[in-house]
Amino acid sequence: MTDAEKKRLEELRKKEDMTEKDWEELRKLEKKEEAEAKPKKE
């Protein structure tokens, strides 16, 4: 994840009045974050 993506994720999590588009973006970023958090299998 890039720093910009991480920053965006933080902003979305703090946002009060989220649109459908915001929710989609949040889900995408969270999936990305999750994927990167998992240890890589060797």
Describe what is shown at a glance:
The protein has helices at residues 3-14, 20-37.
Describe what you observe in this structure.
Helix 1 packs across helix 2. This protein has 42 residues and is mainly α. The model has no long low-confidence stretch (mean pLDDT 94). 71% of the residues lie in helices and 0% in strands. The protein has a domain at 3-30. It is built from two helices and no strands. The chain has helices at residues 3-14, 20-37.
Specify the structural class: mainly alpha
Quaternary state of the chains: single chain
Return Rg in Å: 12 Å
Tally of DSSP helical segments: 2
User: Helix and strand string, N-terminal first?
Assistant: HH
What percent of residues adopt helix (DSSP H or I)?
over 70%
Shape summary: elongated
Overall average residue pLDDT: 94
Count of DSSP strands: 0
* Biggest sheet architecture: none
Poorly predicted sequence stretches spanning 5 or more consecutive residues: none
Sheet-strand content, in percent, reads under 5%
End-to-end separation: 21 Å
Topology, please?
Elements: H1 3-14, H2 20-37
Main attributes?
2 helices, 42 residues, mainly alpha, 71% helix, elongated
